[in-house]
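BUG-473 | component: ligand-complex export | severity: low

The export step for adenosine-5'-triphosphate jobs runs without errors, but we want the raw record kept on the ticket for reference. Input record follows.
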Amino acid sequence: MTEHSASSTPYHPVIGIDLGTSSCTTSVWDGAKLIVIPGPDGSPTMPAVVGQNAAGRIVVGRPSMSDALPQIDGIKRDLGTDERLRLRGRHYRPPEICAFLLIELKRQAEAFLGGSVHDAVITVSGSAGEPQRRAIREAAGLAQLNLRRLLDDPVAAAMALGADDREWTYAIYDLGGGTFDTAIVRVGPEGVAVLGAAGDPQLGGDDFDEHIVGYVLRQIRERHHVDLSRDEDVRRRIRREAELRKRELSTTETTVLELPLLTATVSATVPLSRRAFEAMIEADVTKTLGYLTAALAAAELEHRIVRRGVDQVLLAGGSTRIPSIRERLTDYFGLGPDGIRADIDPAELNARGAGLIAREYEPALTFEGSRPGLLGANLRLRAEMADPNPAAALGEPDPPDLLPGVPAETPADFRPVTVATRDLLATARDGGRASLRAAYLAFVGAIQAAAPDRRLTELGEALSAAYDSAQLP
Ligand SMILES: Nc1ncnc2c1ncn2[C@@H]1O[C@H](COP(=O)(O)OP(=O)(O)OP(=O)(O)O)[C@@H](O)[C@H]1O
Ligand SMILES: [Mg+2]
């Protein structure tokens, strides 16, 4: 095991993150085994939700109880697009929303490990394109994490199985909330080799929820003669209930969606059977088997692996809890029930694989990104987040002599970097920070002179850049 100076804990402080559409999971090597880091509520997974609280602060990982407060879920689906997402009355780019998730996961990991974390291995859907990968790299930088490796989901899942002294051929079937990945992999003493892969970055449990929403809306139209399909709040309420009842149907044969007072005049009670639900998702499941066939074809072409050569099917992703999916897979491969492997919690599998890979990297002493403005951007995002620990909020230390204090009117976006700069200048003895000092004085001077916004933004950005370069060794 590697020694590290960040803390005296036994942990190897390079974390593995499974960045999912619906939830995120983090794992770490504790010196003897891999463990999944629990969130503040003790849960192993954090909902991939970024919302705003009543005070206008960003809250991460806690679905909002109030429909009146905006929240963004499933950001993974938007990574690599030009989508703009609205929160706190402003627009965010997808990597910024993703960065909020990573900042929170890093914070939770640091609280758990009792030391700093600067490095991570993050999973990405095997079918993700370059724009999506680039967006995750950017998000990691915004979260001040050194991204050691972007790990394809199927490789992560196969890694989690651990090595054996013989070679196994697995078909990995990973159906999560928003993406489907499948791969034929060979795992042996030499490691993991992907023989063929296919997938769909826009197919998962969220689509199943949408099918139920469509069904419920049709029922309401027939019974109440109203079309609520354009009402976003109504859709959101039905979707939430649909997701809950869908999970129930993995263990029961029937359920009922209870939707009181969707509008002032419409309440709905909609029974749903497992059979009816399975019929709704049938076409989607058939589509996944098509991808599986494509992955097998690639494995056959390049490595002469055929369907019968697959030893076991490895299930990953929450949606593989749906019984009909398991049945279709056993039929497809002609395997007995033992042919399906689901002994490792499908929700933790990929995070465990990422954690095992993370263990191979040396922890860094600091964040190594050097793009100008990155730290300033990180500080701005962090300043927008609700403080999980108010006692540790940014303080206002005494102004150092001759250096003007941070004006009360400092724009919120630049407040953290301004405070951090003043602290840094107050302790700098070497006089070697002349350009940072100049940037600070220019910015503070402009605020005091009530300069126009555009000028303030320019000078604030210049200060962020100067602060970033002052941090470089
Ligand atoms: N018991 C269950 N039955 C059916 N579906 C379930 C069950 N439990 C969870 N799910 C569904 O699994 C999905 C979440 O799975 P998971 O956490 O693996 O996804 P993710 O990793 O966040 O997403 P992705 O890998 O697609 O980016 C959700 O759509 C959820 O509704
Ligand atoms: Mg996943």
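Assignee comment: Attached the raw record above. The chain has twelve helices and 18 strands.
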